[in-house]
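Could someone model pyridoxal-5'-phosphate with this protein?
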Amino acid sequence: MDNAGCKKRIFLSPPHMNGEEMRFIREVFESNYIAPLGPQVDAFEREMAEYAGTGGAVALSSGTAAIHLALRLSGVGRGDTVFCSSFTFIASANPVLYQGAEPVFIDSEPGYWNMSPSALNRAFIAAEKSGRLPKAAIVVNLYGQSADMTPLLAIFNRHGVPVIEDAAESLGAEYKGKASGTFGRFGVYSFNGNKIITTSGGGMLVSDDLEALAKARFLGTQARDPARHYQHSELGYNYRLSNVLAAIGRGQLRTLKERVEACRAVFARYLEAFLNTEGIEFMPEIPYGRSTRWLTALTVDPDLCGVTADQIIDALDRRNIEARPVWKPLHLQPLFKGCHYYPHTMEKSISELVFERGLCLPSGSNLSEDGQRRVIECVKGCLKTAGVKRRRMGT
Ligand SMILES: *Cc1c(COP(=O)(O)O)cnc(C)c1O
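Reply:
Sure, complex below.
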């Protein structure tokens, strides 16, 4: 029995259903609302707004769609620039290109890996000099943790630049006692299959600006004018969430708090296992907030550990365990070649340093303690083998 379990693949962040989803899906089937929109969508939006404490919420087909609509609603268009965190998944910045605008990438600060206020200040100085202030900004909350919003918002507000908070990875986290994702003009959540709660695919746009949310709803349903015949004056999209998937989301939302506690417990066990390992450092937690630890992210110093992050990922894969590198910073992506980038200091690019050494370990809220022990033993095995090799070579 135990041996059979050992062969099962351990995934990075698999879906974790709780059974409640089926109750809502049954309602969908019984009412035959197998449609985009419907009572589950309305209820999911209400429940998400209530959870986040925002004026409203619009359910969409993905987090990427939510970022895209937020950019449209911020008036971003051809020739505009948008400031965006560099250390993130490509989906944060792709919608900037959809709008024909140009991203300007901002580095992370070393303390918590999210947007660096000092890099942001330098980006604004350059923007003022060239007379090209950004039309909007996308601040990303990485791996379950809010960015340090107070100093960042102070800078953005001084320049009158609206902020879109990409909270796709930080649903369930808090910043100064408030839900992460509710600090900008718009907040974006994702329910993609790998996120802390999932609808298989989906997203949510939250805001206190109800007029803007109504416009988002309009644009996301093909921008149909209020006429009986099919008339359209504006470019729209088919971005609304299916009523079936909203039912899954409602079920998932009911156990969000437990999922956060489970991910934090997974992190705590990793921390305990590697606390005294020289050369291993975990993503630090902000003192003024609470991370969900959606993914346990850490850096490996190859000089001290004798192995690289890549070698650990390979070793885990050979044991049927899925680990991943951290995101490749967007300013290093071929797609964004030529875009401006502002590192934390003139000498130091934090996102590049973390990228060279970073990895994410399996962090599912349904990861068993036995499964996690398997992961920890494998990583420890890599470090030990490296230590033996180094001693043999007399270094
Ligand atoms: C997952 C993710 C998104 C995109 O969400 P989708 O729902 O997959 O479109 C955006 N930003 C970040 C940082 C993400 O991790």
